[in-house]
Amino acid sequence: MDSFEINKLIGGLLGTVFVVFSVGIISDALFASPAPEKPGYAIEATEEPAEGGPAAPAEAKPIADLLANANVEAGASVFKKCQACHTGEKGGPNKVGPDLWDIVDRPIAEHAGFAYSAGMKEFSKGGAEKWTYDHLNNFLLSPKKLVKGTAMGFAGLPKDEDRANVIAYLRTLSDSPKPLPTPGASAENAAPAEGAAPAKPAEGEAPAAPAAPAPAPAQ
Questions:
Q1: HEC string for the chain
Q2: 107 pairs with which residues across the strands?
Q3: What pLDDT is recorded for position 6?
């Protein structure tokens, strides 16, 4: 092969290298993504609180009205959630929680053989407070809201129907089930508290006669 042919091969090779190199430079220029002068910041979405502050916790509906339509059999199914910590048999053993036999109207924190939390003992006022239907309703809705410092870790039963059903079932766990409360009863119909001012007579009515003084107690 003479020098002319060799020069042609070298020239072709150099030309190919030049073309490839030029294409690479042009591609970099077309598709380059330069870094910004200032780094950006990630945007984190935050949930705005509702106007007026956080929502207040739900209040329990009157248990007298709920019990009017309660289903004992459905309550027995709800009670299965409680059986991890409680028994419901007469003379049944205490577990993580006390036995719940005859729980309705039982003095709070007074069941024999169970070590109650300080919060529950304080709430019981030495046994003066009892597990009324209202107390059971509010406690099952939110144990820690009703009894500050209770050791009961159960979150509560938010559904009115579930609470009514299980309370109706708990009522049956007794030799003498307690009477059901009257539906529609409200605090407005209750007797006024001791020391409360007497109600004002309606317009046009004569004021009520003052009550006769009580006799002095025997010494």
A1: CCHHHHHHHHHHHHHHHHHHHHHHHHHHHHHCCCCCCCCCCCCCCCCCCCCCCCCCCCCCCCHHHHHCCCCHHHHHHHHCCHHHCCCCCCCCCCCCCCCCCCCCCCECCCCCCCCCCHHHHHHHCCCCCECCHHHHHHHHHCHHHHCCCCCCCCCCCCCHHHHHHHHHHHHHCCCCCCCCCCCCCCHHHCCCCCCCCCCCCCCCCCCCCCCCCCCCCCC
A2: 130
A3: 73
CA distance 69 to 63: 10
Out of 60-69, 85-94, 191-200, the most confident range is 85-94
Closest CA to 94 of 69, 72, 111: 111
d(CA 74, CA 71): 5
Residue type, 64: A
Give the CA distances from residue 26 to residues 14, 16, 29, 33, in Å, rounded to whole numbers and listed in that order: 18, 16, 5, 14
Mean pLDDT of the chain: 76
Distance, in Å, from the CA atom of 213 to the CA atom of 173, rounded to the nearest integer, reads 45
CA angle 64, 68, 71 (to 5 degrees): 120
